[in-house]
Amino acid sequence: MQKIKENRVKSETVLSKGMFHNLFPDNLVLMPQLNEVYELALAYYESKILTETELVQNGAYFARVGNQFTHHYLMCMGESLRLPQHSSSRLKSFFEKNQFRTGYASHGLFPYRGKFHPQMIKALINVMGLKPGDTVLDPMMGSGTVPVEASLMGVKSIGLDASPFCRFMSQVKYDAFSLPIHPLDQALKNTEKIFELFSYATGRSDSGSKNDKAFNKVTEIGILEFITGSGSSLADQMADFIGTDKSEVLDFLLLAYFDSVGYSERSKRKSPFTLFQAILERYIFVVKKIQHVLQNSNSNIAASKILLGDARAIELEDQCIGGIIFSPPYSFAINYLENDAFHLNSMGVNMDQLKNKMVGLRGKTLKEKYKLYIEDIARVLSECARVLKPDCFCTIIIGTNDNQLSKALGIPKEQVKGLHKIIIDLASNHGLSPMRTLSRQISGMANTMRNEYIVILQRKDA
What we know:
Layout: H1 2-23, E1 28-30, H2 37-49, H3 52-58, E2 62-65, E3 68-69, H4 71-76, H5 89-97, H6 118-127, E4 135-138, H7 145-152, E5 156-161, H8 164-175, H9 181-189, H10 191-202, H11 223-228, H12 233-242, H13 247-266, H14 272-297, E6 304-308, E7 321-326, H15 336-339, H16 341-346, H17 351-355, H18 366-387, E8 388-399, H19 402-409, H20 419-428, E9 432-441, E10 451-459
Parallel strand pairs: 4-5, 4-7, 5-6, 7-8
Antiparallel strand pairs: 1-2, 2-3, 8-10, 9-10
């Protein structure tokens, strides 16, 4: 009986507080919707690495520190994206369930496939020990999540990507923090005229049909130069409608147009113009909300350099970067060039030349693509080790597809090592030692990849 009583007392003691209270002090309140093991692990690391003041300012997984709400919680509260009425129930449900993970600030502009959860990136910047004034690098920035999130945290950043569209999209998201509001309000009053100008410039009618070729009717230099170039009549017409010819504002409107074109290719329920109206309204709502939050929190946006660049040959000095976060492209699962074909063609990009610069797309057969992919990743890791300061961290988020790796390697699926383990071995060859690996499930890509791995490496000099 005594033993049973002791066991019950022990259970009562543990259960009365619960797991969270045993992991965290009572003054830290976790963020709503935190329900995955990797999130709990990152929250635990944040609680051990950051001061209470730092948790309030830059914490990712805590809603409150004592009686003070965190900046992240306040930034995510309220209506995040103002999705149009015709949005699918699946899309609405996704953003409701991921209110604190993605879609906040300017991250929700343009639904790019394979993008990070910004909340996770915020936490990784924290656990890597990066502070305001430090510089983080993403050599394969994709949709710009790392530079945008770092800037919100006061951490300087450099983002590189081989795709001109990714550079363009990332720059627009960063510029959203300081866009003038009046021209955007004017744009909402002139959506039909703006849509007609963009349609003319890209040679695309309001048909909703898929057309991955964009034909510039005036010049082959690309729509960005066509819109904002010296003496551009289109820029002059835009200025008449919205009151400015600032390239940042015109680029913002163009991204909304690109978004509407992509949406119209996936859905025939609404015309491209109707979609453009709804998307532009959503974009402008996002800008107004984040600027309001930043103004009330007295936040200082850190500088970011968003550049075209090759991760295999990074044009930076040795040991100049305080931290690196990137994700190798999911090229075995996603053909980024095919998805972005309309946008890239409209920008005057030579698709064949760009393909040769894209990691994972070089080669003809799956076996050849895999061989070149591994060679390219080894070069990327070598460059990361070169530009990273000693004892600093490089975090790689890696998706893997054992079925495709099995085909590429010509071995049974059960014998596949896993891409994350292969990359860890490659990194070790360049002085990047594994410190921690976390796994997380991938939602929305279950047919191609079910899991990805967060691999935290540290540069160790011999």
